[in-house]
Design brief:
The structure is a homodimer of 372-residue chains. With 372 residues, chain A is of the alpha/beta class. Helices cover 30% and strands 28% of the residues of chain A.
């Protein structure tokens, strides 16, 4: 094993804007209770891209450097620079999660040597990563690193939606951008747990994909009668809770409106301030960074807010989080199977084609980083 | 006492749109435990106007009928008709609250005979109203009906903001349209309770009015550096909670942004998903019915939602509600003093001047209905 490795870095400075590059850094050492994992697969999730590119204007990206050490730069508008104050001038490692083989272990962690594990905690776009053994997820015998690469973010988020539904006293879920890897997991979880799920997608192909997985309610938001279709689905499922990956535009407000229309069809649903049934929408992603535009035609019993995995896991408690992780491990290649459309090395990750591909965050074009 | 009285009515039908008129109806009879109140003063609050005018387009209002029995009609656009389905064809009495003299009492309520009380529960734009004695608020000796007319909606809402702040774990409040009667009460409550309050107003005159009441933080939202001023006030007060009477436009999102900027100045405030401090904005009114437009530049720890008095009182519990009502009675002519710019009879309430006046919901132009 060499003593140095490549590690992906993202740097924003006031002078130069964004610079993404590969740094040559020492391979970390596994301390007591830690394991050193050779990263063999790490996904590029939408939640990684905020750290990768910050507030840079990627339409102005310049692709330079060499084939083995590419450098991508992009301007950061002044308003973006202000929002980035907290990370300014710091060369940040990236990559929330990944999977690979344990190649070294500190005292007390020797049992994991040679095993394949999934990890979370940042800096996975690199040759190696050292983590506490207790934070790793041991992959089932025979599972590949690619199968384990997305063991945390999407699976725990999808499970978190169902747990949040129960904690908040709702009984069904509406999900946007529902043909994503995460959305497909949610379809399988809700089928197994008998939770009514309304899937909102953006094309007929995506609808066909989800119907193929056995989804019952699939609505194409480009349909002219989108809100009416959604209201009917709300009536059938009783959904008063939505998780929205998009954020921008009018559909978040339309979802609350559709819920209210459906509630109004219940006997006694009307009151002068709108229904008294609480309608909640959580924004968990920002696929569309345009402003959220809400026409408040859904009464006064409503809430909208951000939803993030880690604060949710804190709310759930350690025992609950362990229960979710055990389910992910048990159903890794079934419920929680992920699909990737491209596999890139650390250097290839910074090619013009790849950057344009993963920056789009398009459903069905998911990148997997294979550092070796 | 005559056997009939005038009662204000609002009717929406698919054929004719909105019709506001005065009905001649029997004076109600006070049953056991009830009192009959001769209404002597009832405010037109913004929260009354939804029932008064529904979704009608008041720019198309037609003023007809006679001087003693005026009739105002206005068209209701098709989308509005759908939203009004629950009240369609029902002639609705109006007026959330009011005050007057007890002129008759059922068994067990005789002690209130001849006393002045404030009441809530609808149908106060009328000559008389019967209510349960236990729901009335006995006005202090010497208080007039006008002083007691607004004893419920604004006082309990203003007190409710401070109670919500405590229940939700915040320590300061931001308030919009802060020069309103409600806003002035909130200034006095927060001064007495030592709660830091940031007042957002829409003109220099309104700012002067609140400074005259002793308000510390007053910000004019028409100032070019509104967000920067607000961020500074958030930093000084630690405000992470706002109550917004306006709803439409960009200021709700700007308030969350200003909170986030202030939190970012705290040591350790930055994280890649924005701060971890929860920022909450409640929309409790709709002075601007235009869409809410939010640029989500305030991280993921945020919430926005509707706030209504009655669900809040349910959350607070009966004992808490009694505590608030006792404070209102004790401080009726000080903390909870209201100001009216016009006094109108039931018939005058439907004059062109009056309708245009109260429909505007402008701060500083508050109407009092004096049925006699």
């Amino acid at each position: 094993m060499s003593e140095t490795m490549l590690q992906f870095r993202s740097l924003i400075t006031a002078e130069s804007g964004l610079e993404m590059s590969l740094a040559e850094v020492p391979v970390p050492v596994a301390g007591d209770g830690e394991i050193l994992v050779r990263i063999e697969a790490a996904p590029i999730n939408p939640s990684d891209i905020g750290l990768l590119c910050g507030a840079a204007d990627m339409t102005g990206a310049v692709f330079g450097g060499t084939a083995s050490h590419p450098v991508v730069t992009a301007p950061v508008p002044p308003a973006g620079l202000r929002a980035m104050a907290g990370r300014m001038g710091q060369s940040m490692p990236c990559g929330n999660e990944g999977a690979g083989t344990v190649v070294a272990a500190g005292a007390g962690a020797e049992a994991l040597l040679g095993r394949k594990v999934a990890i979370i905690g940042g800096a996975t776009y690199a040759g190696y990563r050292a983590v506490r053994a207790s934070d790793a997820l041991l992959l089932p015998e025979g599972a590949t690193a690619e199968q384990g690469a997305s063991s945390f973010v999407n699976p725990l988020t999808a499970l978190g939606f169902v747990e949040t539904m129960r904690l908040d006293g709702h009984s069904a879920i509406i999900h946007t951008a529902a043909a994503s890897n995460l959305g497909q997991m949610l379809v399988r979880i809700c089928a197994a747990d008998k939770v009514p799920l309304v899937n909102i997608v953006r094309s007929a192909q995506q609808a066909a994909l989800l119907h193929g997985l056995g989804a019952t309610h699939v609505i194409d938001m480009t349909a002219p009668d989108f809100v009416a279709q959604l209201a009917d689905a709300c009536e059938k499922t009783g959904a008063t809770l939505a998780f929205d990956a998009i954020g921008g535009g009018t559909q978040a407000g339309q979802i609350l409106t559709a819920m209210e229309i459906a509630i109004g069809r219940r006997p006694g649903g009307y009151s002068r301030y709108g229904s008294e049934v609480h309608k909640q929408l959580y924004v968990y992603g920002g696929l569309d960074m345009a402003p959220t535009v809400m026409t408040r035609g859904f009464g006064m019993a409503w809430g909208m807010g951000g939803w993030l995995l880690f604060p949710f896991l804190k709310r759930l408690g350690a025992e609950g989080a362990e229960r979710l992780k055990a389910r992910v491990a048990a159903e890794l290649t079934t419920t929680f199977a992920s699909h990737y459309s491209a596999r890139v090395s650390l250097a290839e990750m910074l090619s013009e084609d790849a950057v344009k591909g993963w920056y789009r965050r398009a459903t069905g074009t998911k990148y997997l980083v294979v550092p070796d």
